[in-house]
Design goal:
Layout lengths: L1 H24 L2 H27 L14 H29 L6 H24 L5 H30 L3 H29 L9 H9 L4 E13 L2 E10 L5 H16 L3 E8 L7 E4 L2 E4 L3
Parallel strand pairs: 2-3
Antiparallel strand pairs: 1-2, 4-5
Helix pairs in contact: 1-2, 1-4, 2-3, 2-5, 2-6, 3-6, 4-5, 5-6
Length: 293
């Protein structure tokens, strides 16, 4: 959390500087970069809150704890990025069509300073854990901001040397494109978690086939693989083994397979004996129950 706090302070301080500089220089590139930095401040602040919530132990109705709070904050941050990108993109196109007078030297100096500041913030976030979707998003946003500052500096240089007034709008449009990319990535990844999709890189079909191929396993069904929150995959399944086989041993072997091959440690496996005739008594983990006729 210490590195997140440092990155938050860096972004907040320079955001104020960029807003003032953008207003003085009448530069949309600087103002759009400041708007992007505002989303970074929000992302880091939400990440800090989410980390505090995630550290609370499970209680009451929240049996998994409050770790998914970071996913909600990532969703909010992603939507905010998309909205800001749309606003900045429209204004940038208008400025390209009718460029106003801007101070190229002022934009150049501020853009260079912004590059250094965003590089420092990205370095601080790089020291924090990026297993969290929020922390990873904040880290990427600072990298995008660094590229945005580079674009603003190049726009200032073009205006200063060639009087190319459209450069400010073009730089702002590039910033908007980066924001669209980052915002869509956050909305997509957080939406995948909220909709309880399988974790990225994990194929439920591959997992099911691996489980079913284990010696002694007859069938695997009702297989569910989802992500409770960033870095917390979970799995539940119903497994049938051969009559007379050791259910407990098969369950332990399946858990070891899932942990070692797919990095899924939180598993709920119901292991039953397959009945030789498909009806009548069914043994479940050493107990017996009669199926309704």
């Amino acid at each position: 959390m210490r590195w997140l706090t440092i990155a938050l302070a860096i972004n907040l301080a320079f955001m104020v500087v960029e807003v003032v500089a953008g207003l003085i220089a009448n530069s949309l590139a600087l103002l759009s970069d400041a708007a992007h930095m505002l989303t970074d401040v929000g992302a880091i602040a939400l990440a800090l809150v989410a980390l505090r919530l995630a550290r609370r132990p499970p209680s009451g109705p929240f049996t998994f704890g409050l770790g998914r709070g970071e996913i909600l904050s990532a969703q909010v941050n992603g939507v905010a990025l998309l909205v800001l990108a749309g606003i900045i993109g429209v204004e940038a196109i208008m400025r390209i069509a009718s460029p106003p007078d801007v101070d190229g030297a002022f934009i150049l100096v501020t853009g260079i300073a912004g590059t250094a500041v965003n590089a420092a913030a990205a370095w601080a976030l790089g020291r924090a854990s990026r297993h969290s979707l929020n922390v990873r998003g904040a880290f990427l946003h600072n990298l995008y901001d660094m590229l945005s500052s580079v674009a603003a500096a190049l726009a200032g240089l073009a205006i200063l040397l060639a009087g190319f007034g459209q450069a400010d709008g073009i730089a702002a449009l590039a910033v908007a494109a980066l924001m669209l990319y980052g915002g869509w990535g956050l909305v997509r990844d957080s939406g995948r978690v909220l909709l309880e999709g399988a974790p990225r890189g994990v194929s439920p079909d591959e997992v099911g086939n691996a489980m079913a191929s284990l010696p002694g396993v007859v069938e695997v069904h009702d297989l569910h693989v989802w992500e409770v929150t960033s870095g917390f995959p979970a799995l539940a399944a119903h497994v049938l083994v051969a009559p007379g086989d050791d259910c407990h041993a098969r369950r332990r072997e399946l858990q070891a397979l899932l942990r070692e091959r797919f990095a899924i440690a939180h598993t709920t496996l119901q292991v039953d004996h397959e009945h030789p005739f498909g009806e009548g008594l069914l043994e479940i983990e050493g107990a017996e129950r009669r199926e309704p006729s």
